[in-house]
Write a structure and sequence with these properties.
The chain is mainly beta and about 475 residues long.
């Protein structure tokens, strides 16, 4: 797809230009003499003049469309005529480091104003990005640990602040980290925040957690050294109190930790061989996890491994799994395989001698995740920005500025360019609101939105932050 004609026209030339009416070409054609009793030479001149006028009008129209597209005023559908380029949302003067979308109109973003050390600002919109409001500002030297909204009103934000405790060399003990968590909650959409008086939980620093609702959640105490196996804890009061309900399975590695209901949970581990060598160049022995996917059906008390029919190339390379997604009994498990292993380099400053690759795959389940099969390699995938699932058969994947879609569980695909070249979609489960509403970050500082299930997209004007 060719770039938009907008790229060749300066802003100041069109600042005061009035957009031509949609029927400009029609009015031009209506003004053309229609008499056939003119000499042939005159008819030829009229035809040439007419063509020149029509082409000029068309050029103005294309240029105007390009300007409106660059400002995010128009949505570009698939299969645009005449090579009009992809959507090019305006850039911001900061990086969007995290975001959450609740509806077609309501969204939060966290903006990092400078490359290093903040300040960090939480911004909110309730009108689809037309206007933005600052909700929380964290000064230099501190940062946001996490934030989450369960609906348009109720949310929680964890601020990382410097610790005043003396240093300690014992991991998990007070003072072992130079930062501590400070938790705030809001019940009015971020207009007011209340500090939650909660003692610092040193045992949970660096652990993995998942909240199914605002009050109900689980966590793995991964930071407790020497604890074998590592405890899995549960809370029913939003994290104020925790109780141990089980332990991390022996031979399992930490990965994506999730629950689909209060009883059913998943641990999707990743297999990274690290490719280490000793001083003589001999590979350091690698002990793989005993399974890459584990499930619990009793709220985290016990866990069972699940056999996955991985592709042959997974045996000698790294594997990374996402959390499974379910539609009733039908499940989808997205993962990628990275390789090949690099060769030993006596001089680490030298470039690697092998060219890496990434392949994305999908596994499917039809019994609630107890067994998996129907292995299919997918275009794009995790390394290209992830996938969205409308149902068990309708998937939307991204690869750079392109979207690739299947309606038959990966048997056939169609691809179209949506963004301008050089921009990249980033899709994830939290981008998907419903069957029509999708938000996506494209690059470090831009946002786009679709309200028709991904058929067309519009740019979201980023807020100005000082």
């Amino acid at each position: 797809m060719k770039p938009s004609a907008r790229s060749a026209i300066r802003h100041d030339v069109l600042t005061d230009y009035e957009v031509p009416s949609p029927d400009l070409v029609v009015r031009v054609l209506q003004a053309i003499p229609s008499s056939s009793r003119k000499p042939a030479s005159h008819r030829g001149r009229v035809a040439l003049q007419t063509a020149a006028v029509v082409l000029a009008a068309f050029a103005i129209g294309v240029a105007t469309v390009g300007v409106r597209v660059s400002h995010g005023e128009l949505a570009l559908p698939a299969g645009l005529p005449f090579g009009v380029g992809g959507l090019h949302p305006p850039a911001a003067s900061y990086s969007i480091v995290d975001a959450q979308y609740v509806s077609a109109d309501t969204a939060w973003i966290i903006a990092q104003l400078y490359v290093h050390n903040g300040p960090t600002v939480l911004m909110n919109t309730t009108d689809g990005g037309k206007t933005w409001h600052e909700q929380f500002r964290i000064p230099d030297g501190s940062g946001i640990g996490s934030f989450h909204f369960w609906n348009a009103k109720d949310g929680e934000l964890v601020e990382n602040v410097p610790s005043t405790l003396p240093p300690s060399k014992v991991q998990g003990a007070p003072g072992s980290s130079n930062m501590i968590d400070r938790t705030y909650r809001t019940q009015d959409g971020g207009a007011h925040w209340q500090l939650v008086d909660r003692p610092t939980d040193w045992a949970a620093i660096g652990g993995t957690s998942f909240f199914l609702t605002e009050m109900e959640g689980w966590r793995i105490l991964a930071s407790v050294r020497g604890a074998t196996p590592q405890p899995i804890q549960y809370t029913s009061d939003g994290g104020t109190h925790w109780s141990t309900v089980g332990t991390l399975p022996s031979g399992a590695w930490l990965g994506n930790f999730s629950f689909t209901d209060p009883q059913t949970g998943w641990l999707a581990a990743s297999q990274s061989k690290s490719y280490g060598w000793d001083a003589s160049g001999k590979p350091i022995p690698f002990t793989p996890p005993t399974a890459l996917l584990w499930s619990t059906h009793n709220g985290g008390q016990t866990w069972a491994p699940i056999d996955l029919p991985l592709p042959a190339e997974a045996a000698a390379n790294d594997v990374r799994l996402e959390s499974p997604v379910f539609f009733g009994k039908d499940g989808l498990l997205e993962f990628e395989v990275n390789g090949p292993p690099p060769t030993f380099r006596p001089d680490p400053s030298q470039p690697p001698t092998t060219q890496g690759w990434m392949h994305s795959y999908m596994l499917q389940s039809h019994d609630g995740g107890r067994t998996w099969g129907d292995l299919r390699q997918t275009p794009g995938g995790l390394q290209e920005g992830g996938a969205l699932f409308f149902d068990a058969r309708h998937w939307l994947l991204s690869s750079g500025p392109d979207l690739t879609e299947t309606f038959d569980a990966g048997k056939t695909w169609s691809t179209r360019q949506v963004l301008a070249s050089g921009l990249t979609f980033s899709l994830a489960p939290w981008n998907y609101i419903d069957a029509r509403t999708i938000w996506s970050q494209v690059g470090a500082d831009r946002l786009v939105r679709s309200t028709d299930g991904g058929a067309t997209w519009t740019a979201v004007t980023p807020p100005s932050i000082k």
